[in-house]
Structures are given as C-alpha cells and as structure tokens.
Amino acid sequence: MKLLLALAATFAAAFMLMAADSVTYMDHATVAKAMVKGGSIAKGADHTVSANHRDKAGEVEVHDKETDVIYITEGEATVVTGGTMIGGKNTTPGQHRGTDVKGGETRHVSPGDVFVIPAGTPHWFKEVPKSVSYFTVKIIKP
Prior knowledge:
By secondary structure, the protein is α+β, with helices and mostly antiparallel strands. The protein has one domain: Sandwich (Jelly Rolls). The chain has helices at about 1-15, 30-35, and strands spanning about 40-45, 45-55, 60-65, 65-75, 75-80, 85, 90, 95-100, 100, 105-110, 115, 125, 130-140. Strands 1-2-13-4-11 form a five-stranded antiparallel beta sheet. A hairpin with a 2-residue loop joins strand 7 (about 90) and strand 8 (about 95-100). It is globular. About 20% of the residues are buried.
C-alpha cells in the first residue's frame, strides 16, 4: 500500500509541473506489460513517461532540457548523480553520454526510492547487481 501511495504521489507531483496536452490513461495491465519490456507509456510536448528495465550498468547521461523524476519499482542499483561527466560526447541534440563521473553522490537505490535529477545534471546507473525496474517521468523545458 505504501508503494502505491508513493508512486501516486510521485506521478501526481511530476504531472502538476507539466501542462497537459490531453488526459492519458493506461490501465494496470498495459503498464505492467511496459515494465517487462521497457518503453514509452505516454508523451506530450513537455513530458514523457516511460517504463525502464536494466540488467547491467548504463552510461553516464546528461540531458540539457530534461528533468528526470525516477521511481524504483523492483530490484536494486547503485546510482551516481552530480559531479562532472568524464568522456562526454553529444549523442543527439541536447543529449550527452559519458564513461565516468568525477565527484558526484553515490546512492544504493531499491523499490520505493524516488529521485529528481534536474536538467544538466550527470546521472549514471553505475552498478546493477541483478536487475532494476523503474518509471521515468521527463519534464522537458522549452
């Protein structure tokens, strides 16, 4: 029950920051299916909502105009936020990927954890012992 309340509060707060283009509804079966394979749940001009699943570490990411609100639903990982990206390359407009982070804050994340990563902040799923599943709400600046 706490998990559902935390999830509802997280998404309510994120969506209050966004101007909705129209109402988007996804039933629990559709969301559960998206969580298994990962992918987009909803998109608008100023936001995206996606289901994500990792079974290994990722690359360091920096988004110039996207604030990420991440809610961990299953598994665990070590996430690094902040600091300075090392080996960064522009992969697409406004998106950068790197190989490491100098400095930053390291956290062990598990189900129920929420973090908000402001646009321009390096972040990295550095270690994923088995797997981790999570929702991401991206709030996109104009």
